[in-house]
Structures are given as C-alpha cells and as structure tokens.
Design the sequence.
C-alpha cells in the first residue's frame, strides 16, 4: 500500500522528469530553437535571431548572393540593449541561408522584425525578405519577395518570371523611421495562390535584402502554427 510520503516523492519525480523533457526538447538539434507554451505545446520556431556572428560579424551559415567581401562590409550583426540584430548598410546584393528548414504546411506563419534607419529621398525600396519554400527542376529556389517599398501601395503584386520572384508590397513609406515594426505573413497560402502547387515538405531557406543607400535592420525571424 502506497503511503502519503511515497505519493509525494513519486509526484515530485514526475514533475522533475517532465520539466527535463521540455528543456531537452527546446535544446534539440537541427539548428532551430523551439518555443514552448506552459502546457508544452510548440508555439513557434526561431529560424534566426542573429545571435551567432562569425569573426567578421557576419551571421554564421549565411552566404552572399555574389561577393562575399562586399556582403561582409554591408551586412553585420550588432547588439542593442542585449538584443542582437542584423544591420544592413547600402547593400547591393542579397544574403541567404539554407541551413534551417521547416514544414511550411505545419508552420505557415512567418514573422519578423525590421527597422528603417536611413532612407535617401531617391530610394525606391527599403528592404525585402524572400522565403523559399521549394526549388524548381533546375534546383533554383522558388520564393516570394515581400517588399517594404517607399512609394508603391501596400497590396501591390508584381508577377515574377522564370528567373525573378513574384513581388508583394506589405509595407509602404519610410515611416516609422528608427522604430521596430513586426510583420506577420501566411507564406503557405501565398505560395499556393502564386505557384498553384504545394510547396516542398521542408522549406529551402530565406534570403534578405537591404535597399541601395538604405540603412535597415533585421530582427528575429520565426515561424508559427496558424
């Protein structure tokens, strides 16, 4: 027969065991960090928080579209009040990563933070983010370009071609200057509507781009269940 003291010990061991299980899961492999609600249900996956710069301050496992030297000069991780972010100054090429992947059907919501700091009068756009949910028959990433434009109205869609991305304006205007703003996009639904087929079971990666002459920052990039 189990005494009251034995029940208390067993209950304590179960609580410790469950806590350890949640901690181990959140530290699991794959290069992704999973966030958990109090009930243990995954609420989101951090794809990139820019907390791991290389010796030049460039984000680890990211690559340049063309010139690595130029990318290292224009894309650099910085920190503000203990929060790391990617600072972009006068970029003329994209940077991208394929070191993480996620199931876009299970986690269709992409969120990220960005901040415009310097926007010249002649600037056409401030920044763009390209989630790539598949590759084509030539193994070229199939992506959608989500644009922060200076003047083009929000909701404007520019159809892409064989070697160009479909462009969707999700923010317009240089304001608020110097303030972080957060975006929340259902990239899975957009992919279905634009490409007329299901994406791959695992997304390919993400590219980032800052506008010419513009100074803009990128914060944490995450995916979430709907």
Sequence:
């Amino acid at each position: 027969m189990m005494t009251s003291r034995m029940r208390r010990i067993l209950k304590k061991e179960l609580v410790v065991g469950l806590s350890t299980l949640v901690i181990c899961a959140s530290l699991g492999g794959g290069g992704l960090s999973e966030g958990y609600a109090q009930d243990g249900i995954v609420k989101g996956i951090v794809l990139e928080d820019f907390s791991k710069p290389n010796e030049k301050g460039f984000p680890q496992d990211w690559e340049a579209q063309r010139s690595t030297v130029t990318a290292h000069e224009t894309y650099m991780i910085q920190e503000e009040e203990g929060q790391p972010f990617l600072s972009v100054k006068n970029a003329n090429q994209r940077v991208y990563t394929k070191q993480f992947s996620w199931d876009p059907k299970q986690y269709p919501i992409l969120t990220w933070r960005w901040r415009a700091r310097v926007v010249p009068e002649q600037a056409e756009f401030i920044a763009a983010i390209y989630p790539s949910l598949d590759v084509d028959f030539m193994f070229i990433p199939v992506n959608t370009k989500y644009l922060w434009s200076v003047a083009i109205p929000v909701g404007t869609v520019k159809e892409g071609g064989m070697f160009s991305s479909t462009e969707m304006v999700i923010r317009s205007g240089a304001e608020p200057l110097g303030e972080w703003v957060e975006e929340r996009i259902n990239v899975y639904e957009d992919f279905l509507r634009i490409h007329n087929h299901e994406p791959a079971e695992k997304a390919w990666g993400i590219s980032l781009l800052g506008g010419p002459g513009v100074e803009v920052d990128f914060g944490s990039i995450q995916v979430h269940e709907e």
